[in-house]
Amino acid sequence: MSIIRPAMKKITVVLLFAISCFVLFAACKKSSDPAEAGLVAETTPANNSNNLNILGPDFPLKVEITSAMPPQGVKIEITAKKESSADPAFFSSTNNSTAPQNNYIITNTPAGVTCVVTITVTSLTKSNNVWMGSYRYSKK
């Protein structure tokens, strides 16, 4: 019995050392996920612009992804609502895209009030990679 105890202690120490090394090497392993460029987009009408008293009835919107497109594409969410109202959005659209240029037509705009269009572009590869923009307009 006295021979078995020292041998068991040695095996236990070696086993604990091997597990510790494995955990350390696994923690030091570099991520295989390539870095994704931050999303950048341009809109027409321009981001942060004020476009008042425009003839309607429909209002075109172009969202152009000017950064590198994420491998799985992007989700584009658009809402339009009265600026100073708790009313729900009168227009909304959500779609996934791999195209750099995306065109929309905002409909149902109420006349004589300032409206806010909010655009959110989210990477489908990395959900924390987000671009947000907005602009104001009013229908004559």
Characteristic key phrases:
alpha+beta; 5-stranded mixed beta sheet; 140 residues; Immunoglobulin-like; 2 domains; 8 strands; 3-stranded antiparallel beta sheet
What does this structure look like?
With 140 residues, the protein is of the alpha+beta class. It folds into two domains: 1-30; 41-139, Immunoglobulin-like (Sandwich), CATH 2.60.40. It is built from one helix and eight strands; from the N terminus they run H-E-E-E-E-E-E-E-E. It has one helix spanning 4-28; strands at 41-44, 50-54, 59-65, 74-82, 91-97, 101-106, 114-123, 130-139. A hairpin with an 8-residue loop joins strand 4 (74-82) and strand 5. It is elongated. The model has no long low-confidence stretch (mean pLDDT 87).
Roughly how many Å is the radius of gyration?
27 Å
Give me the CATH architecture of the largest domain, please. Sandwich
Strand content: 35-45%
Share in helix: 10-25%
Order of helices and strands: HEEEEEEEE
Q: What gap, in angstroms, lies between the N and C termini?
A: 97 Å
* Domain count: 2
| Uncertain ranges | none
What topology, given as strand order, has the largest sheet?
Answer: 2-8-7-4-5
CATH-defined superfamily of the largest domain: Subtilisin-like superfamily
Main beta-sheet strand count, sense and barrel state: 5 strands, mixed
- Would you tell me the structural class of the helices and strands? alpha+beta
Could you give the topology of this structure?
Layout (H helix, E strand, L loop, with lengths): L3 H25 L12 E4 L5 E5 L4 E7 L8 E9 L8 E7 L3 E6 L7 E10 L6 E10 L1
Parallel strand pairs: 2-8
Antiparallel strand pairs: 1-3, 3-6, 4-5, 4-7, 7-8
